[in-house]
Amino acid sequence: MNFTQNHLHFRSEDPDAAARFYCDNFGAVVVAERPLSTTKSIILELNDRPLMTISGRAEGEDPVPGSTDPRYGLDHFGFEVDDMEAAAANFRSNGVHFICEPWTMPSGSMVAFIEAPDHVSVEIIQRPSA
Question: pLDDT at position 12, please?
Answer without folding.
Answer: 95
